[in-house]
Q: What sequence folds into this?
């Protein structure tokens, strides 16, 4: 389980680090930005005792962040979120199980390399929280936030009018939670994201 105080401290430290870096030259990737994103996400929920539940869904959300460059290397921090309606249900040993994902959010540290002043290739490490409800006949339902670490890679292209386009792939390894009075739920997920945004 990730402590929210540690997450806040990490975000604050990353923001101070980004803000404290000097910019060697004018750069199209320097500064704050906002954007919208379309997310294809696949969830796998391992339920013990119980079945495996999975679904692939399309979500919609946004990103907000800041970053800077030094000698063509990029460092940035970003908050993102998306809403989705992934769900799956199955029957196991005569009991109907269902999982319903509500939304996800997270914070990422992005480190990359700028090519040709307009193309950024980066890797990311971060945190993701996913809110989901798990139900079973006779056991009721429980909503929990499944927290975990996320890693991935992406490509971003900056246009002259301050708009940018991005493609990204990431995987999240969530921690498990005990729900329904003793059922252990352990999810993992991967995400493919496309984003369009505006850099200030």
A:
């Amino acid at each position: 389980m990730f402590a929210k105080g540690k997450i806040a401290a990490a975000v604050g430290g990353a923001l101070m680090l980004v803000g404290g870096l000097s910019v060697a030259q004018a750069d199209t990737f320097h500064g704050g930005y906002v954007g919208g994103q379309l997310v294809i996400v696949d969830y796998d929920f391992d339920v013990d005792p119980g079945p495996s539940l999975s679904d692939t869904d399309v979500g919609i959300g946004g990103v907000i962040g800041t970053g800077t460059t030094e000698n063509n290397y990029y460092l940035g921090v970003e908050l993102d979120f998306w809403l989705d309606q992934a769900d799956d249900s199955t029957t196991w040993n005569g009991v109907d199980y269902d999982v319903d994902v509500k939304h996800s959010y997270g914070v990422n540290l992005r480190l990359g390399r700028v090519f040709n002043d307009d193309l950024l290739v980066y890797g990311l490490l971060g945190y993701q929280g996913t809110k989901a409800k798990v139900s079973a006949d006779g056991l009721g339902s429980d909503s929990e936030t499944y927290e975990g670490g996320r890693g991935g890679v992406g490509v971003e292209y900056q246009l002259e009018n301050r708009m940018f386009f991005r493609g990204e792939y990431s995987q999240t390894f969530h921690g498990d939670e005990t729900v329904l009075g003793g059922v252990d739920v352990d999810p993992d997920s991967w995400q493919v994201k496309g984003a369009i945004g505006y850099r200030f």
Summary: The longest helix spans residues 4-20. Confidence is low (pLDDT under 50) at residues 6-26. The chain is about 10% helix and 70% strand.
